[in-house]
Amino acid sequence: MTVKIYPSELIGEVCAIPSKSELHRILICSAFSDGDTDIVVPGSAYSSVQGVPDDIAATVSCLTALGATIQYAPNHFYVSPVTTSIDSPLLDCKESGSTFRFLLPVAAAVSLGPSFAGSGRLPERPIAELLDSLQEHGVTCSDKHLPFSLCGALRGGVFSIPGDVSSQYLTGLLLALPLLHEDSEVVLRTELHSAAYIDITIQVMQRFGIEIQCNSGRYSIKRGQRYRSPGSITVGGDWSNAAAFLVAGAVGKNNRISVSNLDLDSLQGDRSIISILRSFGAHVTAERSYVTVTSSPTNATRIDIDPIPDLMPVLAILAANSTGETAFYNAQRLRLKESDRILSVENMLNNVGGHSFSDKTTLAVYGNGKLSGGTVDSQNDHRIVMAATIASCLSSSPILIQGAEAIQKSFPTFFDDLAALGGKFDVI
Description:
Elements: E1 2-6, E2 11-15, H1 20-31, E3 37-40, H2 54-65, E4 69-73, E5 76-80, E6 90-92, H3 97-110, E7 115-117, H4 128-135, E8 140-141, E9 148-151, E10 157-161, H5 167-176, E11 184-188, H6 195-207, E12 213-215, E13 218-221, E14 232-234, H7 239-250, E15 256-260, H8 273-279, E16 283-287, E17 290-294, E18 302-304, H9 312-321, E19 324-329, H10 341-351, E20 355-358, E21 363-367, E22 374-377, H11 382-391, E23 399-402, H12 414-420, E24 424-427
Parallel strand pairs: 2-15, 3-14, 6-7, 10-11, 18-19, 22-23
Antiparallel strand pairs: 1-23, 1-24, 3-5, 4-5, 7-9, 8-9, 11-13, 12-13, 15-17, 16-17, 19-21, 20-21
């Protein structure tokens, strides 16, 4: 699908969609709890099944394959937990790295002979270190790359993994360990990156009654624990996806955008979008559950992007709006996302009249507040679709986004929200 985005002023209010990061974790905890759980997903995005992101649909499908019953209704997922282990289930994770890395240890803990499949770039994304850790605890794998199957039951004990490849390794193990019959501990061999995602994992698990002891890169879980359903649980707003519209409020000439349903005390690392916008000089107000951003002159800055990798594509548009050279450093892990996001962002900007270049670890953007328009290949990356759309606010002519259907991965109602703000586009 190609979408043609026209330069437009964006003014108004949108509601942040429910956090994908929280929802993955809540679905998994619910599927292995002691009773049914009503998961509330507020806002218009989940008012119909068409608004469910592909990543979340993948997790729902895989949990169903493991034996859970999950029913969708507008703004709700109703989860009845697994009661009987299903042998040799097929878990098709589609393109979702979260689904794959979270459920790999979980499936090894609860099922005999699970098989895993995936598509897009998922078979290329890192998994070897997690597989090695599982193999040390009774699980063998038919291959090191998707598709593959597992054999053997996961045993507890001490798991040693790196912390600088993907925080999803640690999340997957933490979610699985309460399901084992032995005490377990995860020890990080290297410094943990994207630590905020682990904070989310621990918070969600605690809401389901699981106790985790954390001390200097060691995470301990006692045997005999059980996920306990809270009955009903509400998913918070997604700061990662809200960032696209918050940046849109800062760029252009007369934009003013408010985003509601955002918890100012959220553990989500991408909540730092507020301080980052201010570091560029953007005009931001934040109170209660609302954040409002108004167009104003912005200036270049330097950003350590390692803790917040999902923000770089849209922040690159803010950098193009800002006077001077903005450097996004410690970006090397972005080469392992849905696309090589350093290269994808660099190409996106240069193809629409911007000026950027990169090396192995850094993306530099030279901004002057102007883009000329052009054609962007999404590289099947939902965050490139969002960023290229917001780039139209700076552009003197339309921007064509090829492969715009990638937005289904995380934000199916993105273009609906754009239209509500006054954005104009055609699906070609």
